[in-house]
Design brief:
16 strands, ten-stranded mixed beta sheet, about 250 residues, mainly beta, about 10% helix, 1 helix
């Protein structure tokens, strides 16, 4: 049995956001590569998408992202509202790497931006300017409405240990078609020990042997409205539950 010491560790929502984006890319971008000619999100330069993110303890925001293997050729990535007014510009010095065996390295450029009250629905676009002065455009259909956050997470009781659970469950979110669960072991420095596939149900079984008596765990649920849509890209609306904590009877 583990020796326990009190740990007050909660990863920042920024790091969770980055992790979710990388998971998103690994699940859907590769799955959609064969359909790139059918999707306005794809160009010869890479993949463009905007998410409307509803996260705990902060206002809803846009997350623009662009994934590309041609990063060395790009000099500028700008994002525009449907009326061609500029929304934001991605910082080429800030990116995350996506590496896969036998595939070229990708860089994922991401930028958060507040959503103004009058933000319209419509085709948002990006302009990717290359080093030679030429540019490429791609677009994403965005509806800046909010997907409610998942709630009523069970188990969620850190102060009173619970019997060994065999599943995690939560309340359904109107408009959400898919969910993804992230489970961390807080006695192991908050290490993620389980990331589910995208699922359409509001309950998932915990793999046998993953949890231990006396353990301390946290978990959260990410909801999304679609997965791999021709108009809305990977997804348009996403939301994240508050962190649920639970300890297990020794």
């Amino acid at each position: 049995m583990r020796k326990h010491s009190q740990i007050n560790y909660h990863p920042s929502y920024q790091s969770i956001l980055v992790f979710l984006c990388l998971i998103t890319l690994s699940i859907s971008v590769n799955a959609q590569e064969d359909n790139s000619k059918k999707s306005p999100h794809y160009t010869t330069a890479g993949f463009f998408d905007i998410h409307v993110c509803n996260w705990p303890d902060r206002p809803t925001f846009f997350l623009s992202l662009f994934s590309t293997e041609r990063f060395s050729e790009i000099s500028r990535i700008e994002v525009f509202y449907p009326n061609n007014e500029k929304l934001t510009e991605l910082d080429l010095e800030r990116y995350r790497l996506v590496t896969e065996k036998a595939k070229p390295e990708k860089r994922v450029f991401m930028k958060q931006a507040p959503i103004p009250d009058n933000a319209p629905s419509g085709w948002y676009s990006t302009k990717i300017t290359l080093q030679d002065g030429s540019y490429i455009r791609s677009k994403d259909y965005v509806q800046p409405t909010t997907l409610k956050k998942p709630g009523q997470l069970i188990p969620s009781n850190a102060n009173n240990p619970v019997p060994m659970p065999d599943s995690l469950q939560w309340r359904a979110v109107d408009g959400a078609k898919y969910y993804q669960v992230f489970l961390r072991d807080m006695w192991d420095e908050g290490k993620i020990i389980f990331t589910s596939d995208l699922i359409s149900t509001t309950k998932i079984r915990i793999p046998k042997g993953m949890l231990e008596p006396g353990g301390y765990y946290t978990w959260k649920v990410h909801a999304r409205n679609v997965n791999g849509d021709a108009r809305q890209g990977d997804f348009n609306h996403g939301s994240l539950s508050k962190i649920a904590e639970f300890t297990i009877v020794e």
